[in-house]
Amino acid sequence: MLKEKMQEALNKQINEELYSAYLYLSMSAYFDNVGLKGFANWMMVQYKEETDHAMKIYNYLLSQGATIKLLPIQQPPHEWESPLHAFQETLKHEQHITQCINDLVDLAEELKDRATYNFLQWYIDEQVEEEENDREIIGKLELIGDSKNGLFMLDKDLAQRVYVPLIQEDSGN
């Protein structure tokens, strides 16, 4: 059985993950509106992945007999200065999520909650990948600068990203 403090922290993390999904859905709409369908696709895939991340915690809480307490989701921004600005904000957001995960790991250690500590290791690895992906795209956008051709090529590249659902090993869903 999870301690109350861990249940509350994990419920808060569900909210963080759902806000992430909401942010990326908003970014997808922004990119769609400015005619960058590949960027919109990349963000739509990100939206779906973040929803999976929230559900992974949701299912873990249920498997531990914990109570799910969904919190209100904050409204995300809906405009950015440029694709580079949007990805800089994405990286900043992912760094925030990394800190949230690190705080959860610290709490699991403090509470000697080995099951949750083990569960959270997947998120640590995932955050390394998330930040790396953002840095890579930021680097490309910085190289492109004001080149419309470069932006067109990157948009085509980002259109190739495909959503791969997480396997929900801990749930029949």
Written account of the structure:
The protein is mainly α and about 170 residues long. It contains five helices and no strands. The mean pLDDT is about 95.
Protein structure class: mainly alpha
For the record, give the distance between the C-alpha atoms at the N and C termini, rounded to a whole number.
22 Å
Tell me, rounded to a whole number, the average pLDDT: 96
Radius of gyration from CA coordinates: 17 Å
Measured as a percent range, the helix fraction is: over 70%
- Give me the number of helical elements: 5
User: Any idea what the shape is?
Assistant: elongated
Number of strands: 0
Q: What is the H/E order?
A: HHHHH
Please outline the helices and strands.
Elements: H1 4-33, H2 37-63, H3 83-110, H4 114-144, H5 148-158
Helix pairs in contact: 1-2, 1-3, 2-5, 3-4
What does this entry show, briefly?
The chain has 173 residues and is mainly alpha-helical.
How would you describe this structure in keywords?
0% strand, 73% helix, 173 residues, single chain, 5 helices, mainly alpha
